[in-house]
Structures are given as structure tokens and as C-alpha cells.
What does this fold into?
Amino acid sequence: MNCPIENTESAGLLLDYCRRKLAPDTTAFLERHMSSCARCRAFRDGQIALWRSLDEWESMPVSDGFDRRLYSRLHGPDAGNFSEKPRVRWWSWLFDAPLSASAFTRPAVPLALAGVMILAGYLVNDRADGPVQIAPRDAVEVEQVETVLEDLDMLRLLSSRFGDAVHGSFQDAAIEARS
Amino acid sequence: MGASAVLDYDARLMLLVKHGDGGSFALLLNKYRGPVIHFLYRMVQNQAVAEELAQEVFLRVYRGRGNYEPSAKFTTWLFRIATNLAINSLRDGKVEKNHEQIDGPAGDRPALQVPDRRPSAEQLLVYRVKLQEVREAISELPEKQRAAVLMHKYEEMEYSQIASVLRCSESAVKSLLFRAYESLRARLAHMDDKGAR
Ligand SMILES: [Zn+2]
It folds into this structure.
């Protein structure tokens, strides 16, 4: 093979080799080349030694007041409507990990959706038959409205991520529950 | 599956920030505060200036949330802001070169991390000399080469991402890195012979 060090495009391969980021077959190929190429061996040894030297430069700790200073600037006159405290929704754990095509194969998502359906059904029944009163009616209604609105939030997020298939059926159920 | 499903997690958080979710901003800040400050610190080599620039980075992220379009990875956008601010700051001459000497007063510097728990005076001296040489060697690189090396070495970014941050081609990044590492290898070659870790 041509020596990879001779052009910068393929020299990237040597850098990747030193970072151990190459596929096994490319690694083996380069190692065969290096066994007979003193220039590439020298590059490899020099680069590994250099990175060892650069590792000496550790990062600095962030000063304590960094976030406080930032938020005080964010909350300044041009900050707009912004809440510093994370608003943790009860369903946010569903989205803590990056989504993948197999998201629906995880049991948690369908279970949570089933839960929302049951809740929506319950709220519809609740309105028709009248619930067992354990708290003043107004307070219960406010809670129910908040819960339904939060569920709608979740449905909006779900439908934007999983497409229209989910959107139709669940959105209808939740809207029915709210009406 | 909608386009949003293939977005990286950070970009999805940023879209929530765009819609007013402060919690998502806090998550992004928590995740990238360190990397951004460390990158800026190595660029400008001054802790106070690095933190001030990092404040500006996150302010711009927040203020630019309305216009955010997830066309690239979130970190690409973030490091592009950070790189531009650092380069402008260096060009403005606001940063005194090697302003902070590692053997100067402690200030807000971290304690030196030397492998042995109780380094001898000689080990400490060797470590300090090596560290100072590394810092000087990096600071002597042209701005773009410096940014490329810091993103490649310390942030472990791919060529394509560095290219996107620096708005150049991947082969230009490889060329930048190749030249930068060549200078650094020549400049610091003697360090490995000293051995004294
Ligand atoms: Zn070769």
C-alpha cells in the first residue's frame, strides 16, 4: 500500500489508529503496513507519546458561583418567561434515554399509554356516574383538569415523536375525557 | 417515524427549551458546563476569561432558543458558539497570554493532580515544567489548529463534527490536525524522554 502518512486524508487513519478507533480489519491492515514502514511506526510512537503529554493538562474545576451568575443574567430584564427550576413531569422518565426505533418494544411505554387510557376512561365514567366524594368536588375537578392537561402534554410529545398512528386514537380519548 | 425521532437527545432537549422549558435548559447546562469551560480554558488559558466566555455561550444558547433549528448535533452548535467567542476574544487581545502561571498564587486554580499521593519536590517541579510546556505549545498553535486539537483530543469529537464547528471540510480538518500534531510532536518530543511521571 501507499504509505498513509504521505497524504493528510489517509494520515487521519493513523490518528484514528492511535486512538484505537478503527475497525479490526483496518487496524490489522495498518499494523501489517507498519511492521515494514519505519515512518509510520515513528508517527505512531510520537503521537502516542504526545497524547500522553497532553493528558498532563487536566481540566480546571468550575467555580461555585457559575450557575448563580448565569441564572441572574438569564433572569435579567431581557430574560423573558423562563423558569430556572426543572419542571419534572411524572412521565419524563419515559424520555430520559435517547429514543430508538425499538422504543415501543420497551414495556414501559405501552404500559404508560395503557395507564393514560384507563385514566381517561375513568374520568369519562366519573363524570357520568358521579364519584365517591372524599374531597370537596371543586378541588377534585381542579386536580382532574390538571392531570388531564398534563396527560395531553404527554400525548402531544408522544405524537410528535411516534407519528400520527398514536396521535389519533389517544388524542381523541383525552379530548373526550376533558370535554 | 417522525423526523424528531432521529434527533439526538440534546437537540430534543433544546427543542423543549425553545418552547420555554427551563428544566431542559438546566439539564443541558449541567451536562455541558464542564466541557465548554474546559474547552474555553484551554483555548484562552485564563480561568476567569474562560468562565466569562462560557457564561456568554449559555446566554446565547438561551437567547437564541427561538431560532434554534436542529439541523446539526446540539454539541456542534454549542462548540461553534464557544469557538467563535474564544477566537474573537483572542483576536481582541483581551486575554493576556499565559496570564496564569501554574506556579503562581493559588487563586481559584485546582490543586495539582500528581499521580503519587505525596510527590517529592523534584516530581512536583518536573510536573510543573511539563505542564507549562504543554500549555505553551498549545498556545503557540494558530487559533483554528488549536481549536481542532482541543476538540479532537480532549472532547473526542469526530472529524465531521469538528468540520461542522469550524465550517470547513473534513479533509481540511484532517489537514489542520495533522499539521498541529506535527508541530506539537516536534515541540514536545523531549518530554517523553524525561519520563518523570
Ligand atoms: Zn508508512
Q: What stands out?
A: Residues 25 and 143 of chain B are 29 Å apart (CA to CA). Residues 170-194 of chain B form the longest helix (25 residues). Residues 113-197 of chain B form a domain with the Arc Repressor Mutant, subunit A fold (CATH 1.10.10.10).
